[in-house]
Amino acid sequence: MRPFVRGPILLILMNHSRTQLIAGNWKMNCSRSEAIQLASHVVATLKPVDAQLLICVPSIHLADISRLIANSRVLLGAQNAHWQEKGAYTGEISVNMLADYQVSYLLVGHSERRQMFADDNKKVALKFEAALKNGLTPILCIGETLEQRQQNLTLNVLQVQCEAVVKQVGIKAFANACVAYEPIWAIGTGQTATPEQAQQVHQALRAWFAEQDEEIATNLQILYGGSMNAGNAEELLAQPDIDGGLIGGASLKADAFLKIYSAAG
Ligand code: PGA
Question: How far is the CA of 24 from the centre of ligand 1 (A)?
């Protein structure tokens, strides 16, 4: 992966028409009543701007929240699913089960799943493929550890994570997908990548995609994730290659989350 953008790619960037996507990742938080309260607050106080708003909630709350956001601008996502349609996979839910609940996005390859639940590149690619087959938009999460960054391996790590998916589904499939760059050292730590650090990686990532397909790269939403909050969102989202955010902690407070959303518009 090349760290710098070359001439023709700069031209493409100037002509893009990417909408920003602000995605909340609630992780394993919220009781049923807290989930209903949080989503209701978001729906009730949302002031629409020219950006998309998504909440990825624990699967057990999907039925409640899908009813609650119906007829609102809020989109619904899930945090994980199995790639098989059905079968003897105790404890799992399939992507086509999600489709029954107006779920339109699926997080795949979040670093917490990679690190704690053995979601390797192959499984991530299969989940990505299953999401597409069921009409969901996969958000491919990628990111490096602090150690990898210190060893200057960031772009290699991201490239390997993306290549596994491209190999499974082909580059054109990214027309219906998003990527979320989430440096692992920035997740839940309060230590955000600086806007410059994030932009540099996003630009290099887009250049890598452009080497395979310029149109796909031009239109691909690349989100930043890792301690994004109401205070730092505006500067991050102002970067030319940052097309939104994947927000954990700050998505659990409706006001903070909606402030980030406003900064995207
Ligand atoms: P954070 O989490 O915003 O709490 O750092 C981001 C994520 O894990 O998606």
Answer: 9
> 12: CA distance to ligand 1 center in Å?
30
Residue nearest to atom 6 of ligand 1 (CA): 248
The C-alpha R_g of the chain, in whole angstroms, comes to: 17
Domain ranges in the chain are 9-252
Looking at residue 99, what is its pLDDT? 87
Q: Quote the ligand 1 centre to 182 CA distance (angstroms).
A: 8
pLDDT band for position 15 (50/70/90)?
low
Taking the CA of residue 229 as reference, the ligand 1 atom at the shortest distance is 3
Hey, how many other C-beta atoms are within 10 angstroms of the C-beta on 32? Answer: 11
Angle subtended by helix axes 195-212 and 7-14, to nearest 10: 110
Q: Which residues are catalytic?
A: 110, 182
Q: Ligand 1, from 26, 79, 246: best to mutate by most atoms within 8 Å of Cβ?
A: 246
In the structure encoding, which two tokens stand for residue 245, read together?
């955010």
Using CA atoms, how far apart are residues 264 and 261, in angstroms rounded to an integer? 5
Q: Tell me: pLDDT of 199 over 50.
A: yes
Average predicted confidence (pLDDT) for the chain = 94
Protein residue whose Cα sits closest to atom 2 of ligand 1: 248
pLDDT score recorded for residue 169: 98
Contact 203, 241 (CB under 8 A): yes
Instruction: Specify the amino acid at residue 235.
Output: E
Give the residue, by CA position, lying nearest to ligand 1 atom 1: 248
How far apart CA 246 and CA 50 sit, in angstroms, is: 17
How is domain 9-252 classified at the architecture level of CATH?
A: Alpha-Beta Barrel (3.20)
The pTM for the full model equals: 0.94
Q: Is the pLDDT of residue 90 over 70?
A: yes
Strand partners, 245: 22, 224
